[in-house]
């Protein structure tokens, strides 16, 4: 399902960067990655059209590789990054084992929410682990805010540019939902959310250490986002972890 729905979305995803929630996402990612990205090697899993892969280069990484299951997304990422030294893009299924190398930083923004079984979730965590440097490698990622699901409006109300409709509980600790991003040309997709307990347990099983949940950072754009309101009901959860030897 992920390949089909994202191949059809393709370049329309680029407009998501204008959403209020994305502004908070971007400021949070940049703050928590910090200056340590300077001179680093970076891998982004589920890179989409390569927004954060290109940002990694902009923020000082010497190499940034993006992979995604959708060939349409990767084609668009290559077009957008044409002439950008250090950025590369490849098609890969992040729920199946692969090794691109050993990177200082592995980014996984909106990857884990495409795991509809615990086995797939574990496999994704394993790819994060296996592509990090054994000494000093770390990851940073974003998942949907599970705690928000019970309070999601059912009448199609937008939350910071996003409309979310819960669909069903498909397994213990996994909920499926339908999301519409209210971009210039709105588009929708289906993905999942996982409890923190399940995410933490599967991360440990994959060999990741020190999984920590990070606080969203105010993007300082009051005309676009009411951050006080957003911080009370953030649409995402940000995490970081390191690799065991």
TrEMBL record:
Keywords: Methyltransferase, Transferase
Keyword flag Methyltransferase: yes
Protein's organism: Penicilliopsis zonata CBS 506.65
Gene3D superfamilies with a match to the protein in the record: Vaccinia Virus protein VP39
InterPro entries given in the database record: Methyltransf_25, SAM-dependent_MTases_sf
Every Methyltransferase domain range: 42-136
Gene Ontology molecular function: any one: methyltransferase activity
Example GO BP: methylation
Entry protein name: Methyltransferase domain-containing protein
């Amino acid at each position: 399902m992920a390949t089909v729905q994202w191949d059809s979305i393709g370049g329309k995803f680029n407009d998501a960067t204008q959403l209020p929630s994305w502004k908070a996402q971007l400021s949070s990612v940049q703050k928590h990655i910090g200056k340590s990205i300077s001179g680093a090697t970076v891998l982004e899993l589920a890179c989409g059209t390569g927004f954060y892969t290109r940002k990694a280069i902009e923020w000082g990484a010497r190499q940034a590789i993006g992979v995604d299951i959708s060939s349409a997304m990767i084609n668009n990422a290559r077009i957008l990054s044409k002439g950008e030294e250090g950025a590369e893009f490849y098609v890969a299924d992040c729920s199946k084992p692969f090794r691109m190398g050993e990177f200082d930083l592995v980014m996984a923004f909106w990857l884990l929410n495409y795991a509809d079984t615990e086995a797939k979730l574990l496999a994704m965590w394993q790819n994060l682990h296996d592509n990090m440097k054994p000494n000093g490698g770390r990851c940073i990622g974003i998942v949907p805010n599970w705690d928000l699901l019970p309070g999601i409006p059912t009448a199609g109300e937008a939350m910071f540019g996003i409309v979310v409709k819960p669909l069903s509980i498909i397994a213990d600790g996994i909920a499926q939902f339908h999301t519409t991003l209210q971009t210039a040309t709105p588009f929708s997709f289906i993905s999942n959310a996982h409890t923190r307990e399940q995410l933490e347990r599967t991360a440990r099983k994959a060999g990741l250490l020190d999984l920590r949940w990070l606080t969203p950072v105010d993007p300082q754009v009051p005309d676009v986002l009411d951050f006080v309101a957003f911080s009370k009901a953030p649409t995402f959860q940000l995490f970081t972890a390191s690799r065991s030897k």
